[in-house]
Amino acid sequence: MRRHCFSSCQNKGTEISGTIKNGANLDVKFDELMLSQVLPIEKTTIDGSGNFKISLENPVKAGLYRLLIGRKQINLIFNGTEKNVKVETDLNELGITPDKAIAYKVVGSEDSETYVRTFTDLFSGKIGATEVQKVVEEAKNPLLSLLTILQVEDFAKPEFLPLHQKVAARLNESYPNSPYAKEYRASLQVLENQMAMKEAGAVAIAVGQPAPDIALPNPNGKIMKLSALKGKVVLLDFWASWCGPCRRANPSVVAAYNRYKDKGFVVFNVSLDRDRQKWVEAIKQDNLAWEYHVSDLRFWDSKAAQLYQVRAIPQSIFD
């Protein structure tokens, strides 16, 4: 009897392991992802052969998680039944371009596997937004619906508000007291306000009028004002590091800046990022060498985005 108990106890927790090519001797952090914060859980070091293992004494509860390896991230969606989860990736490939953001494999977590398969097919062109929407609507675990809907920039448009409301209702039903349900419900207020303005035919920015001022911090915390650029030709560009179309459009913005910067042309970038590190990395990776980069790191709650009624990105406005 005691032997049986010992065996059962040994299998109660969750083990997360895998092989990370080109990741030898790097730290692996296992964190829980909230909409507004990251909660550290455990960490280990990849061995010389690229293998790692994180053994947790208790089962991992249903939620959104990540493995952070250096600056690269693997998203995981758990339903609370996972015992042995295995991941595999090549750090030299993971995240090097927007379409490589999901360049990893997961086994042992059904929802994570669906998430990886969905976005692999989306980025390769095998499926479109319609098929992704079907995943959002039909997923058994609303946490899979939540992470999926947040990763597709088109779904941030006001016309997709009913889809967001369905996900919010399912989250509240399945996880009524969770931070996911509460924070997501609160975040939908922005979309609801935008939809109300759209239905009312509201226009916040009149053509020919001075552009509403923006005063937000740059990556170093210094407040940068759009009004400080009065007299210059300004491209007000809304973007984010997580936005594939934005990243693909950046080379054109860089080319325009390099061609006309000596003639008074300035780019004022407003980022809808949440993660400062990813924002700064994207600026560097895309060679956005101008001075004016600002963000309040509030995602679609960005005050500047609301002020300019930005419903999708990339979006550019000439001042």
What does this structure look like?
The chain contains 9 helices and 14 strands. It is of the alpha+beta class. The strands form 4 sheets. The chain has a 4-stranded mixed β-sheet with strand order 4-1-7-8. It has a 4-stranded antiparallel β-sheet with strand order 3-2-5-6. Helix 3 (129-138) packs antiparallel against helix 4 (142-151), helix 4 runs antiparallel to helix 5 and helix 5 (161-174) packs antiparallel against helix 6 (179-200). The model is unreliable at 1-10 and 200-208 (pLDDT under 50).
| Fourth-level CATH superfamily of the largest domain | Carboxypeptidase-like, regulatory domain
Number of domains: 2
Number of helices, counting only DSSP H or I runs of 4 residues or more: 9
Q: Under the CATH scheme, which class of the largest domain? A: Mainly Beta
Radius of gyration over all CA atoms, rounded: 22 Å
In brief:
The chain is globular and about 65 Å long. The chain contains 9 helices and 14 strands. It is of the alpha+beta class.
From the structure above, extract its key features:
319 residues; alpha+beta; Immunoglobulin-like; 2 domains; 4-stranded mixed β-sheet; 25% strand
